[in-house]
Amino acid sequence: MSDDDDHRDGNNNMSKNVVFDEADPASPQPPSSIDNDISSSVTTPPLSNPSAISTSPYLHKVTARRHNFLHESQTNNNLLERNALKISSHKSKLFLFLWDLYSAFRLFGVLLISMETFVGCALTIGATLLAYYLSPKVISVSDSQWDGTLPTILLSFATVTPLIQSISMAFNRREAALRALASYRSALYHLYMAQASWDWGECGKKGGRRTCVENTTDLKIVQGKEEGDDGESEEDSAASQKKQPIDWLNHADNLLCQLIHLSDSLSQYLALPIASRTHHRATKFGEKEAKTIVFTGRKIFALNTAGRIFMISQLTEALKYRGLPGNEASRIRQWEQYLSVSMENMRLIKEYRTPQSLRLFGRVFTLFLPPLYATSFAQIAIDTESIVFGCIIGAVTSLALTSLFEAVRQLEDPFARGFTFDGIDVTEELQVLAYEELMVARTIIFPDAEEFVLKEDSNKVKKGGGLDSRRSRHYCEDSARIISTP
After folding, report:
1. Distance separating alpha carbons of residues 403 and 326, to the nearest angstrom
2. pTM of the prediction?
3. Among residues 8, 4, 35, which one has the least CA distance to residue 261?
4. pLDDT-derived band of residue 333, with 50, 70 and 90 as boundaries?
5. Which of 370, 377, 379, 452 can bridge 124 by disulfide, Cβ–Cβ 3.0-4.6 Å?
């Protein structure tokens, strides 16, 4: 299949997909697609009927199709809501209690049990056995003798308090990351809506988008042709003098392609492993690993901030060139700034963590402080005449502290690829949900347009891989079957 076969034919409205790819930087781009991501160097011909995609509120046929789409979607959502309420209604409170209890124990074992847990429990039990068998078995002691019990203030001061403070700081960072992500997605959606649908026509004065035509002189300059070029035939010259309506769907799809690539790259960056753990600072091999991760992440991030944002900005310049008022362009610029600021906030949260010294303090003492209380656990065993009970108390103490530290460790990096206990699933948020919102907006604005598919996604489908990167991990086949059944 040639490259031209992958592109949208502007003179028809067939059911084939719009396939977008990165543009060849060497190919000249017309003003109508300054940020053209189509992989062909041939200029996409404009639509023969530009009013079919006009954003005029007086196009009642287009508005009716939009209402029909929204009505169908709402009807399907009502079916899904009824099914969700039905499946989540549990009449037996005992069953719900047992279900939640089983789930809590299972998740506790999967998510909070770490290598530190086994090491800490082994050290504590070993120290307790040593203290029990080496100490005299005296049930009652006088006031002048030490019974082996240690004050718990050291345990709370050295471990519990630092861990609680670390959890509080890490949770605040997670909330800040969520706010930055919400600001990013909101700006993403409004930026597309503005570029695709805002008009500047005035009743009885200017037609706005509906009357915009290509500047043939600029087209010749951009395409590398000079006026009076001998290589141009008379037919080509006559065709170039004919006013060509601007393909606004192409303009919107160029922006859509950039926004999707922006979100995908941001997701890749945020899902990278963290590079500020203890071994990244203390060992040569860890330092090399950290440099590799940071270098990769900053290359990905620089592509977004310096590359994608600039290409999006160029599309705003194209709208200004065609008549968009300066005050409305300023608002679009503000949303571009919101995108950049939100990305920078998420980058800072990703690269800079809670105090390293506090985490080192918590790691060391959660592991080695419970064994120091072995005499207390041994005294419990002597008082109850059960060494097993004393070892259980020591193991539970170590288990609680190491599990608390594991919760701190998981909260350190609020971004994650896939499911975590409290992390932000950036793949779901940026590659799935943001993509779906943009596709719904495109369907509403351009109800007659063919389906939009990125070229890399199209290649995955051709290879039989499907669009798994665009499918939510919450996808439910039973629910999808409900709305697909006629």
Report:
1. 57
2. 0.76
3. 35
4. very high
5. 370
